[in-house]
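Model: Ready when you are.
Researcher: Fold this.
Model:
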Amino acid sequence: MLNSTKSTLGVVSAEPEPIKLDWASTALLIIDMQRDFMEPGGFGETLGNDVSQLARAVKPIGALLKAARDTGMLVVHTREGHLPDLSDAPPAKVERGAPSLRIGDPGPMGRILIRGEAGHDIIPELYPLDNEVVIDKPGKGAFYATELTDVLEKYGIENLLVCGVTTEVCVNTTVREANDRGYRCVVISDGCASYFPEFHEMGLKMIKAQGGIFGWVADSAAVLEAMKTSTT
């Protein structure tokens, strides 16, 4: 429940245009800030990626997470991963590419992208509180084969502040899913990251193109300022 000292409305300076948000119907959605993607030895690195590219998103997300917690905003974390028997992991996904370790293989942080393993969990800097929602998803999008729609409906959510990794994959997929379901998404530009900086840039451009075809894009400072200036 939102802090009673706050107004329920705020205007975020965003692209392609400012957006007015009712904080009471807004949630912070943090996508896949997991050790398997963020740290050496995880799945991201097995694909040949420089995982240090993702570190830039941690501090902006941390600032938003603190503000959301301070105001009582609903916080939802997601984790991509699979059941230990891989029954929810399509062979086409497991076999794709040529990683040094595949999904389910033993790695430095346990079996790669398997629920319950250390690598599957969220990084300590952004670790969920006991009262925060954690959605385990088998795919790129946070709505596919999960309870996310039910959670958002339960709390009367209409707007999503979306951040996490990677910009062009799980963030973009989730925003497109959310857009089709009628949610208004504000993607946090400095709270997202990619192993490929050019993909990050283009991923954000695709979201805000054509008058905001999938949503709005704003940096963390703009959102924090809108939350701050919403005091009554």
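Researcher: Now this one.
Model:
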Amino acid sequence: MPRLKDKVCLITGAASGMGKAACHLFAREGARIVAADVSKADGEEVVAAVKKAGGQAQFVQCDVSKETEVRRAVAEGAKAFGAIHVLYNNAGIFPSDDHSVVDTEEAVWDKVFAVNVKGVAFVCKHGIPELIKAGGGSVINIASFVALVGCSVPQDAYTASKGAVIALTKSLAVQYGPRGVRSNAICPGPIETPLLMEWLLKEPAEKAKRLNRIPMGRFGKPEDIVNLALYLASDESAWTNGAALVADGGITSNYF
């Protein structure tokens, strides 16, 4: 039996990278997909591909940093499929001008927190009531390994935002666990998304520096994270609540 049969999953940042991979995998496992992304063309392309493969999906254009757009996206998804059972908060940004706390501009902090923290909060604010109406469900928040360790090449706004995601996840787990909604975070290591790979191809020294820290000897692939998210979306994780699950090839365990 498909692992997500009869589940409706709202996935943010669905047009590329891990979000795109999640749309395809979750649909293959029987889920109906509400694909939310700020990019209309790319999001509709993902939905078309899911449908072509025999899945069910609907695109909703949504900037998660804007509460009115999130409210509308959740309402459209619930109306299209009758319920929502999974919130997959995958949307996030990682600006190139995010550096140390001493040289990162205020505008960068505002932009990063608007998407990475407020975006998660808005989806949960409007989505969790739908999960409760459906009899329970799963909130999956994408944090990062950098929220757990320091970095000599800092991205402090991003790092702080992902720490906030873990803290928020644990608060949600306590608040809504009694109502059948479990909330968990995934902390990925460096993943081969187009954004990261484009940068590292231009900077071979930076690529080598990062690879040397990963005991598995490779960057993660979107599927490495999405397969873990599949477990959290499925009923197999019925007693997993408030966890921050690390999938990083061992990078946070590497002293030297």
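Researcher: Key takeaway?
Model: The CA atoms of residues 25 and 226 lie 8 Å apart.
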